[in-house]
Amino acid sequence: MTRPTPDAHGEVSVDRLALAEELAGTGSASGPGEGARIAPPETAEYALRLGDDALVLAQRLGDWITRAPELEEDVALGNIALDLIGHARSLLHYAGSATGRSEDELAYWRDEPEWRNAWLFEQPNGDFACTIARQLLASCYWFELNTALSASTDPILAAVGAKAVKEVDYHRDHAAQWTLRLAGGTEESRRRMIQGVADVWPYLDELFEDDELVTRLAADGVAVLPSSLRAGTEAAIAQVFAEAELEPPAGRTAFTASGGGRRGKHTEHLGPLLAELQVLARQHPGASW
Amino acid sequence: MTAPAELRRASEPAEPTADELAGQAAFDELIAADSRIEPRDWMPEAYRKTLIRQISQHAHSEIIGMQPESNWISRAPSLKRKAILMAKVQDEAGHGLYLYSAAQTLGIGREEMMRQLIEGRARYSSIFNYPTPTWADMGAIGWLVDGAAICNQVPLCRASYGPYGRAMVRICKEESFHQRQGFEILLELMQGTEAQRRMAQDAVNRWYWPSLMMFGPPDDESPNSAQSMAWNIKRFSNDELRQRFVGMLVPQAEVLGVTLPDPELAWNEERQAYDMSEIDWTEFHEVLAGRGPANAERLRRRREAHEAGAWVREAAAEYARKQADRAAELAGAVA
């Protein structure tokens, strides 16, 4: 057996690594050209929708850290949340460029009716199965969205989509693997997985709803028409369900299908989430952190 | 040589066997050469036990240490700070995982270590039993607590037990990032509004003494230190490390513009060391005995997460078992 010499790893200096390099991995919003390009107003509104989706779900997932069923899941869910914050920062930074607002002004100083996220993302975590069900729907949708977005005629949206799709691919795999384990594990885990899917399923339709703004932007190749993502998203979910022997539940309602998130109408869950997210920043107006 | 510790102990004769004498000689030689002991090498039972205790305590500290900081993830005051804090807490979970793995090479299971923790039979660093009432605590924890941890841990990269030393190399690199992000949080606060400066000074006041206590009791009251130093697990005494830490803090506090809350803190030219006030060891022993401000809260959170997640771990195990059965069936069908 070879034995490493005592100093095989050398001395570790506390100053050796550059902070900026390390921070690059935490979702810095300074991607190529992002500082320079100003979003046209309608594109900004579209970026805001996508950014709010990612930020709201990141805020939800952050709550699992220190509460997950095993340490590996503290790491995994934290990592997914971190990726989503990265997406949100790029998108909010770009959205804010249209009106001279920073990512933090958008995140911390907008009230509930100004948020544009879809309802799925603001739903409570529930138990681990419910979180996994929400992750499955969200990441299957995001995979389709970001794949299409990477071909956007808007260079910033295309760059965000191209970066995000690689990360979301892992999120989708994580959700699919856990769906299989929970659906095919014990009687209790199967019961909970079925319940989790039933809880989040009604919020799927809103993701595919077109409106005038997005239809105009899609015609210019800037945005992805939400209705065009339905087939791919549902097929990906159906594939996981088939292997997990789960049925897509009934329970779509006209009420949840039309949603309202894109128009600033939200379920009762967004308010408390924003109150917590924004409380400290709002106690110190004008402060920098 | 690889029998589990408890089996070997049960059958251990009063007189050492020839194998054990040879093992001890090889072990002594490796230690004398300042070389590494690896999992399959013979090692004295006391060395194994000391390491299991130290590494599992260290792992528990990382895991419990996630809590005071996770308290601010949802309320971090900017998206950049939120991302950094999340990454930091995630690193701590990762450190816990490496360290549990290192301890596992000594013959103890992770389930058993987790049980010891949630049943209150294992120790973890007392520092995490202090609460984090303000955002500035994120800065003070990074600067002072992670700073103290680095002083303790950099020498552990050379610890004689291979898996521990190697885990520490990676951990120390990440800890140094944690310390600087804490310093940067405080710097930003000290350059900010009056309320932010007060918040920063208040956090430094609360964390300074507990961070000095992280080095453990004074050398003349530290019963395990001598043996750990002889085994090349520990390289410097508690008081030496504490001095080194204070020496590092003083110039950094000047840059920050914070006051370290010790009126007697002064450089002593003659001793070439800092003079400081007596540490309040009564507080240290109270917190250590489980009567600190947040001991019960920290253990409760860990226990609740563990218990609430039991059905998930059972499902994963059951699913893996079914998959293995299916694979075996398929293999049988092919054969």
Automatic annotation (TrEMBL), chain A:
InterPro entries, alphabetized: Aromatic_CoA_ox/epox (IPR052703), Ferritin-like (IPR012347), Ferritin-like_SF (IPR009078), PaaA_PaaC (IPR007814), PaaC (IPR011882)
Keywords of this entry: Oxidoreductase
Domain of life: Bacteria
MF-aspect GO terms: phenylacetyl-CoA 1,2-epoxidase activity
Enzyme Commission code: 1.14.13.149
Protein's recorded name: Phenylacetate-CoA oxygenase subunit PaaC
Species for this entry: Agromyces soli
UniProtKB/TrEMBL annotation, chain B:
EC number(s) reported in the record: 1.14.13.149
Record flagged with keyword Metal-binding: no
Keywords: Oxidoreductase
Keyword Thylakoid: no
Pfam families the record matches: PaaA_PaaC
Example of a GO MF term: phenylacetyl-CoA 1,2-epoxidase activity
Protein name per Swiss-Prot or TrEMBL: 1,2-phenylacetyl-CoA epoxidase subunit A
Organism: Agromyces soli
Gene name linked to the record: paaA
